[in-house]
């Protein structure tokens, strides 16, 4: 069905990509944050990730392993990563901050320390969720004084 002035190029019956794939086979974007003030962020795409069997600790370890083994991530190896937090959910409101989401510190921060902790699906993570990985001390300092610097 098309309108003479505005052709419709989408299907209202088509499911959103965030819930079209099973929780056992999702794509996640992990945002490695090297520097908050200088906005040094590099994305890692994890495909075919299982949210029903993996914990936040598993995700943390999987990402750190990639950081240590992939040559393109060499500049990001000198950061002491210790925190993971959801940046955005697919098809939901986005933050205006380009580096980190300052909201939801309590409920969107993942427990990366507990190897037997909650499964990723219990954090309301689904296909195309973006998750930030960063140093918590740097985050607290930046949140207290969120001034961005330019090179």
TrEMBL record:
Highest rank taxon of the organism: Eukaryota
Cross-referenced Pfam families: DUF2340 (PF10209)
Family stated for the protein in its record: Belongs to the UPF0538 family.
InterPro entries: UPF0538
Organism: Naumovozyma dairenensis (strain ATCC 10597 / BCRC 20456 / CBS 421 / NBRC 0211 / NRRL Y-12639)
Name under which the protein is recorded: Altered inheritance rate of mitochondria protein 29
Organism taxonomic ancestry: Eukaryota, Fungi, Dikarya, Ascomycota, Saccharomycotina
């Amino acid at each position: 069905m098309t309108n003479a002035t505005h052709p419709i190029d989408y299907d209202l019956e088509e499911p959103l990509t965030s819930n079209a794939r099973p929780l056992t086979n999702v794509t996640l974007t992990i945002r490695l944050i090297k520097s908050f003030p200088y906005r040094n962020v590099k994305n890692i795409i994890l495909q075919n990730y299982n949210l029903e069997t993996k914990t936040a600790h598993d995700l943390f370890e999987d990402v750190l392993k990639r950081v240590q083994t992939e040559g393109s991530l060499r500049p990001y190896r000198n950061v002491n990563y210790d925190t993971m937090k959801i940046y955005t959910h697919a098809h939901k409101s986005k933050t205006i901050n380009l580096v980190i989401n300052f909201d939801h510190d309590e409920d969107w921060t993942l427990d990366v320390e507990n190897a037997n902790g909650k499964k990723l699906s219990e954090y309301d993570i689904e296909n195309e969720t973006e998750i930030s990985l960063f140093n918590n001390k740097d985050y607290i300092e930046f949140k207290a004084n969120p001034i961005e610097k330019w090179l």
